[in-house]
Amino acid sequence: MELFNVYPLFDVNIVKGKGCRVWDDKGTEYLDFYGGHAVISIGHAHPHYVESISRQVAELGFYSNSVVNKLQQQLAGRLGRASGCEGYSLFMANSGAEANENALKLASFHNGRKRVVAFKKSFHGRTSLAVEATDNPRIAAPVNQNGRVTFLALNDVEAMRKELGKGDVCAVIIEGIQGVGGIQVPDAAFLQELRECCTATGTVLVLDEIQSGYGRSGKFFAHQHAGIWPDIITVAKGIGNGFPMGAVLIGPMFTPRYGELGTTFGGNHLACAAALAVLDVMEEERLVENAAQVGGYLLHELGKMPGVKEVRGMGLMIGMEFEQPVKPLRDRLVYEKNVFTGASGNNVLRLLPPLCLTMAEADMFIERLSEAL
Length: 373
Ligand SMILES: Cc1ncc(COP(=O)(O)O)c(C=O)c1O
What we know:
Aspartate Aminotransferase, domain 1, 35% helix, 15 strands, four-stranded mixed β-sheet, binds pyridoxal-5'-phosphate, Aspartate Aminotransferase, domain 2, alpha/beta
């Protein structure tokens, strides 16, 4: 059997990782400014993470959601405290798309409505309603196009008020910072207006923090920079540092009903052990603060670089927009300078390093990028 060929690949076989570095099968070391697509939060192969998962799998890797799982309860408590969202409850799934599906489903169960508002350039995943709420018709199959989602321009208060004012919108889904869309940060004032308008119209506010959350922006959640409280928050990526996991943080206005949501694998023992180890390390090594500090430095330094149209972002979620396509630059960075980076669209270089990035590694990146430019 051959692989179903849907991924354009760098011709590099990564076999080992440690902190913010990865190595290929020939022993070449790379600086990881991509974090495996914002997934690596605490760094590759952290000893505490390795030990926690190894211990758990030797004890019990999986049992179903039909029995008490104390690790789930521990994780809910720990995540509540770490994020400041202690009044929310937790439902666990296996990926970001699945977290968003559950969030939108819950919103619709709650208010009985069917329409969703999302934003231009949004990305919420590749499953049914998540991909319909993603502003990219090329990845939505005809079966996903059901006319239930209206896309508005980000930060357009008037358009948002008008749409929600119709009174039939089930949920608004918005990224804390748009990632795939090019590191677009919503205005704090827009998020505050959106919060008010959702409350006034009975619309559920869903914050997709799958890429921008878990400390990446320099606060636990990116929307916390605007001081708002969403009704539902979705997370994935950094929660498990590579162990596949997603979760929904559900505000106090929702009352659960048996059978309303469910999953075979979500919140299994091994996933919870991974997520608990991630929180241990984030707290112990103060990684949210580190993301704010090293990210702030990077943003400042990258902003001074010649030939860059705009530098955007917060913490360790940074986009560098160029006039020209970034593909040749990314190739040079990988093959000549041994640095992995991401992209958004054609012209934005997307930087999503692990949150344990040091100042020395930030400087190393700046030097290699300057040379590559
Ligand atoms: C903001 C956002 N939401 C949802 C998703 C989908 O997550 P997953 O690929 O785990 O389904 C992504 C993935 O890139 C994302 O960036």
